[in-house]
Amino acid sequence: MRISSLRLSGFRNHSERTIEPSPGLTVFVGPNASGKTNALEGIALAANGISFRRPRWEEVVTWGSSDAVISLEAGDDTTHVRIDLHVTREGHKELKINGVKKRRLADLSGLLPVVSFIPDDLDLVKGAAERRRMSADELGGQLSKSYRAIGRDYSRVIRHRNMLLRQWRPSESELAPWTEQAITLGAKLVVHRRRLLRRVIDHAGPVYSRLSGGETLGLEYKDRCGIGLTDVHTEVSEQQAIASLESTFLRRREEEKARQTTLVGPHRDDISFVIDGREARIYASQGQQRTIALAWKLAEVNVIQEVLNTEPILLLDDVMSELDAARRRALTDLVREHIQTFITTTNTGYFDPALLQDAVVVQIGSEGDGSPSSD
Amino acid sequence: MAMYAPPIARLLDELERLPGIGPKSAQRLAYYILRSDAEVAERLAQALVEVKRSIHFCSQCFNFAEGELCEICADVKRDPSVICVVEEPRDVVAIERTGEFHGRYHVLQGAISPIDGIGPDQLRMRELIERIGTGGIEELIVATNPNVEGETTALYIARLAKPLGVRVTRIASGLPVGGDLEYADEVTLGRALEARREM
Ligand SMILES: [Zn+2]
Q: Do residue B84 and residue B117 come from a single domain?
């Protein structure tokens, strides 16, 4: 699928703007804080219902505007889709797909998958475990509605359960139904996540080897569910995960009450990378860490192609300046492989002139844009 | 802090107590009322007072009622041995629309939701257990919403009621996931009642 038209209205600093992107490369050029990342975010929100910035909804509405509208049209040889996302100042949102109102943003799953790569993603290896879990779960949510629903419901159960432990001094009968839900949903989540990570590492491994000149990349899944199988190639059944979670919850019951938080479950699992048998978090150079982050993103593209049988849309926010020429090349090669790509940059000098020749270059924040320039 | 004349401050204060109304919405409502004719405010005030005076909760099922008992609890043709447990009065309306259910109801007036400060004690849970205690109830059909809070509430009820010798069933999934009962159409909801499962 490719986006043929994007309209932003009352969205962040874009009071009214229509962009007709290239089926190949579209470059948003402008100084810092000009709103070029906002344009990228608009695409992510309409395509996926989530953006890499994870804003509160009311934040995306232009100051002084009553609501924000993002509309995009996309298609390929056989299908055409129109997405309209409408957000009010109160943060209420209304989604229409081909003019039909949808009750949930989850209905976007699988329709117009995106892979976004922003400077924060370069912390994938050494950053907090949450970043790695989220990278996996957001990809999973794009691949399947049920992955997305399980992830959403599970986090809600954990929020409730933590609140109960912290503020309510709950009786066993009050805690039990929440524990039961944390077990059923947590088991589903950990099984789905492991299967997804298996696909990701099977693609990221070879990509990493190629980019690094022969080093091997591995992945270990370190769960807090009591399963204890770090190799994601080992299949864990839902029943097995349920049994592990049940006994682990039981074992850590007193500790949970003392620490007043949920200690067991996939919301505390970690994913770690291994280069030639050594833990990347500790030993990887900055260059190796960036290559892992890049290999992960390229693997996301492959996994989407494999599972959904469609090309994702690639959103690159200012990462070109952070990568060296060879790694930049690995990304821009995707444009040649017919992946529609949107890039923000302060400077088109990072790009191969041959690539820019066919690109649509959109100036943002200076000439050609009447909107005020503040993010 | 903004300074309002005391009557306006008081109105804002009352509006902000309402569910789903934050300071901004309260302000907008208050300005609307201030700008409107006196008649608009009087009609609103009367409607509020009237609804509180004439409508209250059924003493048995906690649905809205005009008398001591609601129409359904007062109807001798309804089967008293099967109770459908729902979150809100609007869910009673949704299930009545299916025409498939001939028992009686119990309206919890919410679902367990610690984030919102709602535990079993804030619901009509004790009254449900008391109702079971009076005897004659064979089955509870738990028709709380198919979301995290509704599911937890159902599990809580099952754990409480089953030891009392009552059959506890849950309406079938197949309802829109994470949705509310009121959005389900009659056919889907009727089927969900039909295909209920043991808890
Ligand atoms: Zn009644």
A: yes
